[in-house]
Specification:
Blueprint (H helix, E strand, L loop, with lengths): L6 E6 L7 E6 L4 E3 L5 E8 L5 E3 L6 E6 L18 E3 L3 E8 L10 E11 L4 E4 L3 E6 L2 E9 L8 E11 L2 E9 L6 E9 L7 E4 L5 E6 L4 E7 L5 E8 L6 E4 L5 E4 L2 E3 L21
Parallel strand pairs: 3-11
Antiparallel strand pairs: 1-8, 2-4, 4-8, 5-7, 6-9, 9-10, 9-11, 12-13, 13-14, 14-15, 16-17, 17-18, 18-19, 19-22, 20-21
Amino acid sequence: MRNGYLVLALCASLVSAAEVNVEIVFDQEQFLRSESLPLRLRIRNFSGQTLKLGTSSDWLTFTVQGRDGVSMVRTGEMPPTQPFSLESSKTASLSADLMPYFKLSEPGHYSVTARVRIPEIEKELTTAPRTFDIVSGTKLWEREFGVPGTQPPIVRKFALQQATFLKQLRLYVRLTDPNESRVFRVLPIGALLSFSTPEAALDQSSHLHVIFQNGAQSFLYSVVAPDGEQIIRQTWDQTNTRPRLLAESDGRVVVRGGARRILLSDLPPPLVANTNDMVRSK
């Protein structure tokens, strides 16, 4: 999803009166600026014949409009799908990320529609508009760092931002260039209590370590690599001590205090996640 590619999945369909039905589906309807903006396009075929889709570059087109109805500027063309066949009584689900291909840098209320051309039945179908919101977050912390192993040296910036989503406060990691003119990644890392003050630190390998309170006695701990990938996610509980970040003299950053709770949602998965220590660089 991060690179805006399209993914195809086929599944059984529900009965519909229409010959072919297309609709846009969002898993959420509110996004932080520059965050990945995934959607799914469902195509249900009840035409009584197999449809061949994706055979031309313009068979599928997305349009995004602002609140005033003005179409948003495209910043690139979405990669085409591979041609595929859709049998009658089946559904195709196409997944796409809109953020890299439209200028959606300003907070606001937007709508998106999709147009699908189907040569076999000589129809051009347009979905009903689906709305979504782009919101701006509050910056809590930021730090510039050098990307290891780059010549000439490349400088990036990590920032922590919070934003409210469906009345729930969320914490995000934002990776940009030093001037924030280019955004490389916006990564949600968990729900945040309103009174929580996240701790953040960089280790000797420019990995970002973050720990913050997400429950009455629970804390989330994340490690994000210099490329913006989350490589560690753990849950820690407060016991007689509170879990905190500690910078070691050798440049490592570790969690001290509290007690770790093993969960299936951990990164790496529980079978190999037996430590919160980073692999030390040679």
